[in-house]
Amino acid sequence: MLRCAARRLVSPSLRGASPMLGVASRKMSSKPKESDEVFDARWQTYFSRPDIDAWELRNGFKRTLRT
């Protein structure tokens, strides 16, 4: 009797969690689409500034690769 009760307590924890099947997801963005010409012009003006420092260069490179 005690063995049967102990087995019932232990067996749910040994089964593990069941995987979630059929999870739905939607990728949305609220940002407007930017044309290639506008994107290029924006970053050309950013990088051609005479007073840009090393941190701004690194930050700009990271941001251009991210978008």
TrEMBL record:
Describe its membrane topology: Peripheral membrane protein
Which InterPro entries did the record assign?
Cyt_c_oxidase_su5A/6, Cyt_c_oxidase_su5A/6_sf
Pfam assignment, any one? COX5A
Which is a GO BP term held by this UniProt record? Answer: mitochondrial electron transport, cytochrome c to oxygen
GO cellular component entries: mitochondrial inner membrane; respiratory chain complex IV
| Function field | Component of the cytochrome c oxidase, the last enzyme in the mitochondrial electron transport chain which drives oxidative phosphorylation. The respiratory chain contains 3 multisubunit complexes succinate dehydrogenase (complex II, CII), ubiquinol-cytochrome c oxidoreductase (cytochrome b-c1 complex, complex III, CIII) and cytochrome c oxidase (complex IV, CIV), that cooperate to transfer electrons derived from NADH and succinate to molecular oxygen, creating an electrochemical gradient over the inner membrane that drives transmembrane transport and the ATP synthase.
Q: How does it assemble?
A: Component of the cytochrome c oxidase (complex IV, CIV), a multisubunit enzyme composed of a catalytic core of 3 subunits and several supernumerary subunits. The complex exists as a monomer or a dimer and forms supercomplexes (SCs) in the inner mitochondrial membrane with ubiquinol-cytochrome c oxidoreductase (cytochrome b-c1 complex, complex III, CIII).
Family statement drawn from the similarity comment of this UniProt entry: Belongs to the cytochrome c oxidase subunit 5A family.
Report what the protein is called.
Cytochrome c oxidase subunit 5A, mitochondrial
- The protein's organism comes out as Desmophyllum pertusum
